[in-house]
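WARN  no MSA supplied for this record, continuing single-sequence
INFO  ligand: zinc ion
INFO  echoing inputs
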Amino acid sequence: MKYFFNLVLLVATQQIIIGQINESPCSHEAIMERQLALNPNAERELMETEATLQELITQLKASDLSGQRNTSSYVIPVVMHVFHFGDEGRMGMEQALAGLEIMNADFNGLNDGWDTIDSEFDSIKGELEITFCLATIDPDGNPTTGLIYHENEEAMYNQGNLFEYAWDNYKYLNIYFPKYTGGAPSNFTAYAYYPSISNTENNTDGIFYSSIRWGYGDHSELEEGDDWASVCSHEAGHWLNLRHTFEGECSTTNDFVDDTPPTLGGSIELEGCYNHDFSCGVRTNGENFMDYNHRCKKMFTQGQVERMEAALYLSSRINLWSEENLIETGCLDFYTTTQDASSKEELITYPNPTTDYITFKVNEARYELMVYNTKGQLHKRYFMENAEGQIDVSSYGNGLYFFSIVTAGKVRTGKFMVHR
Ligand SMILES: [Zn+2]
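INFO  complex generated
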């Protein structure tokens, strides 16, 4: 448990002053305290999740099909809960969407800083093809803006139980927006919960974020272009199981990511893009989203992207981006428009994840379907006689599978998950 101790200690000693915002950007101390209060097994569960995650990373890496893998974006339905008192803290839609756009740009390498990354780290920068989509269907099946207002003065100060407003955590990423995450004035901007099946089960997962630091616009105190707004990508990184780059200090395990240089987080005290901190004898990747240098946020590394992609296959995250869930939350249109439209029209697989059967819809009268395991070995071969056909996967073990559909002159690939 040494690492939890370090984590708390680090946060406690790193109350910092950056620019006009006299606070720490993200509080892991708050996360762990709340996590432990909610769930006494949180530490054990976190260790177990870590073991599962390492297996998933290996599975995804081992796939010989990685070059041909379906490159479609993961889509995560989001609900945003705004806690306000009259106009106070009542962030509008424009500001809400501005924050989501920042997140989507940051994860996909479309952010302004992407092309000016320090040359020492430019070759290890990574993109996770993921889209955070504001839900358009609520849990009762009714249309929604995805931006839900709760008039509650106490909750505006992040006091009381904000989780009572949660939407099903298996179906939506819930982002809670008190005006001040850490009371008034906020001692930190935001915090997020690591993947945890018991949190998901209890609807106590999600991200908490001060509405005055989210995006740009009416209630935000940030000026457009301020990298502080990318703290949202830092929090989504935690939500996908990323640790701070300075976690574990100079130890070899550090943040469980191989390509992020160890650091004491020295760059947090520095304004802007200053990468010359050698706190662990190597140069700090101060432009990393998971560093504390919140006035210079530009990149995740490829190792961090692997870790986040694997986290999407954890049982606490996997249903969110399934096609079935995207239909139920009104994010399927988004899905269709944000990836290669031609491949989407030509190939639909559902349900995914599945338990016993999976249906393939392809614009072909007959075709050969090959299913591979994550080592790239052929698992099963099917000859399909209809444009819409079902295969029985009830004998398959739990896990990730890749497939290719071969027709005259065309190979289409994808992946599906068997999960019971
Ligand atoms: Zn953090």
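The chain has two domains: 2-311, 341-418.
INFO  checksum written, moving to next record
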